[in-house]
Amino acid sequence: MTINLAMAVLIAVLYAVGFFLLMQRSLMRVLIGVVVLGHGTNLLLQLVGGPPGRAPIVGSAPNDAFADPLPQALALTAVVITFALTTFLLALGYRSFVLVGHDEVQDDVEDARIARQQIQDDEP
Question: What domains, with CATH codes, occur in the chain?
């Protein structure tokens, strides 16, 4: 199996952009990050699936002449999971916008209080 370098670089860029967007505070950016990661995963599964042009399992030929069905099944599963996460995050972002008026994730007051208390406890 030969690895297409351009496809590998594109997958790396998609994963980097997706993870960068996941680390943002805006829920819409998180949603876009999940979608970009899903596309990167689909391209990764396409890359590991082998070279194009192989026939599905039909007739009697050596096993090397057939396409591997596992990456195709995993790609279909990745599409379904990405769709489910996208719809969930869309609903979450919409609900957050309706309740608060924006989609930014704010710092938790209790977590900030605990962090301040730990800093004060660590000081001599």
Answer: 5-122 (1.10.287.3510)
